[in-house]
Specification:
Length: 243
């Protein structure tokens, strides 16, 4: 995104009045969830629809924190049995259903010197191409590996289910690891997301921002220090800026 366009975006942002937590110093890194945050869809449910399966209830229960993510991850993949062609279609669906200002927000944050990463329990072959189109560096995209090109389906499922992002507790681990490798104090890390797995990671970082622009999870709305209920990430810009 050209610098001039980034500057225009900054000027056009309508600031949302929020009360920032005491001691928040601003972000050196912002992690974004993907499904129902950067795009309106849940990738796993899109895969299910392509295969004529229905796992929406399992997805909703896991995202609401009603059942452990790890308990449903394998069951969903075995039920769906996705193909590479299906994953490619979901990339297109992500792009078609992307949050309109996601790419501009990411560009503006990066222009101001704040790192941007994606952290998702979605499947990497679908999440990564979409996130790259939004402007995320390939090395800054963290999702569940699903190597169908190199492994038969059952082995690919085993690899996926062994990944930290396929279970509860995975996002805090990945965030801590990324911050350690980059030399960033986790208290200057921000996470933006809609689900229970995002809320779970909030204890180990400086600020969690709940996102309800597409779907509102009651637990997230109630417990997030800041909650955005409009389909826009623009309010992240002033929240993230160093104090």
């Amino acid at each position: 995104m050209p610098r001039a366009a980034v500057n225009r975006f900054f000027r056009l942002v309508i600031l949302t009045a929020v009360s920032l937590p005491k001691g928040w110093l601003g972000a050196k890194i912002v992690f974004f969830d993907c499904d129902s945050t950067l795009a309106s869809i849940e990738g796993i449910d899109e895969l299910a629809a392509l295969r004529g399966a229905d796992v929406a209830a399992l997805t909703a229960a896991a995202m609401a924190g009603e059942i452990p993510l790890g308990a449903v991850f394998r069951k969903r993949l075995e039920t769906i049995a996705p193909t590479n062609a299906d994953l490619n279609q979901v990339v297109s669906h992500y792009w078609q259903q992307r949050l309109p200002d996601a790419a501009n927000t990411v560009a503006a944050l990066q222009e101001s010197g704040i790192r941007c990463h994606v952290i998702s329990g979605g499947l990497l072959p679908a999440v990564a191409p979409f996130a790259e189109k939004l402007g995320f560096d390939p090395s800054a995209i963290h999702a569940v590996p699903f190597p169908l090109a190199d492994q038969p389906l059952d082995k690919a499922i085993d690899i996926a289910c062994a990944h930290p992002l396929a279970r509860d507790g995975g996002k805090p681990e990945i965030i801590a690891d990324v911050c350690a490798k980059l030399g960033i104090d986790p208290q200057q890390a921000m996470l933006v997301g809609d689900g229970a797995s995002d809320l779970e990671a909030s204890a180990g970082i400086g600020l969690f921002v709940g996102f309800g622009g597409f779907v509102t999870r009651t637990k997230v709305r109630q417990e997030a220090p800041i909650f955005l209920d409009q389909p826009s990430l623009a309010p992240i810009l002033p929240i993230a800026q160093p104090r």
